[in-house]
Write a structure and sequence with these properties.
This protein has 484 residues and is α/β, with parallel strands linked by helices. The chain folds into three domains: 248 residues, Rossmann fold; 152 residues, Jelly Rolls, CATH 2.60.120; 50 residues, no CATH class. Helices cover 33% and strands 23% of the residues. The chain contains 16 helices and 16 strands. The strands form three sheets. Strands 6, 7, 8, 10, 13 and 16 form a six-stranded antiparallel β-sheet that branches. Strands 2-1-3-4-5 form a five-stranded parallel β-sheet, sandwiched between helices. α8 runs antiparallel to α11. The chain starts with a helix and ends in a 5-residue tail after the last helix. The N terminus and C terminus are likely disordered.
Length: 484
Amino acid sequence: MSDWVRAMVSFSEGAGIRPRVLVVGTSNGIRKGGYAEYLSDIVDVTNVSLGASTSIHSIHSTHDVDFANYDFCVLDFCVNEEAPLRNGMMSWDDIDSILKNLICRATASRCLPVVLILPRLLQVEPVIRDPYVRLAERHRIPYLDGYALVARLEALGVVKQAMFADSAHNRAWVSAMIAEILVAGMKALRPGWRKARWKAGRFTAIALPAQTEDVEIVQRATSRFSGEFIRLDGPGKMTIRNLPGVAVVGLRLNLARTNGFLRINDTVLDLRNEYWVQKTKPGLKKKSVVISVLPLPRALDCRDGEIMLEMMAAPDSSGSFAVVDGERIVDAGAAGEAQVEVEIAEFVVRLAEETTSAYRPDAARALVDEKAGNLIRLGLSVYRAGQPEEALTDAEEIRRYGERLNNRWADRLGSRPRNDGKRAISKASDTGPRPEATAATAREAARARQRSAYTPDQVEALRAALTPEAKAALRGQWKGAAPL
């Protein structure tokens, strides 16, 4: 973590009582430079996040969580639900039922859920944003709208691409800002608990090794999770018996050892994925374990207690065909000729019973509001002081900088033609100022704007944000920035 980003974390030792926060999220919640890393510098955090998953993973991740031990519960899933919802592999009803279960369990112990709508780098309007906002408003819980934060930063002259490390992960400086806004909101919120009995659907995770016989069982572990998986090495069939519940809605598996098509009763899933084929990419070390919980495109009735599994090298035309996650599908030819295998630990099952809560909160609030404005502006100033080459003001240079970032990511993924190794130069750039000159002009304009917006002492403190001495002074500025 760079010092100039860590300087953005305001409340450290001596900040008084630290809220107890449970984070249930995806890769943004566990990656280095993610919001949860900065959040843990400010509040007491317990993190049960899991990457490469949607909200369905929370059934497994929170099965032994006592929500009474926490003041707040951050729900962060939507960044991984945009694509499945857009391509029809998940419905909002599926997502809503799982989120309602989490909210019900949390509020039963008077732990206040906070919905975190992390943005993706999209060229179109997100389809997941509005349903999540409506969910928060319906349950009267606070939410942080990352798309609103992106819009505020764009209005302040930040290139959208500079906010993202890739299409689904924020840059560290944005993550630190999100952590600050979350904590400022938590400190200002009054849950307003009222007695009101209500119900939600109930789910559980069923360990498959305990439900099977005469099948290979392997032990897999990561730094966050471990457990037994059943393994099918090559095409084959097996039957899972004595399942409780009314429907199977998801499965937990090891993506690094999963490749091929899996038929579950009459539904066929395409489980070819990039984590399996990484070993075919030159210079890229293949991961041995990538644990993920994937939703099924439709619930499978299991009221008779039996589910049939069949691993195949090619799709079975007798069943309905579905791709679990369109973002992870690889070239059909490369995967079709490869080894067929699958490792599954659990089925996620919907039960007939319901879970109940005796409380409802009254804390609906958009955390990216006018009161967060000073935090956003000051955080942006710290960012610009540490990264002056990205503090752009000229509209044409902003456009060019965005194109350069897009091309850099495309090169990394190997999806952009290199034009024989030569950089493409537009006709307009031949007649106008050189990009380097425009960039220098933009940097000077940005510095001038900083000097006009802050006192000389503030500018020096921001420019010196890399030093330990400046961090202490900067924390004082943060605390006085926004009377939340």
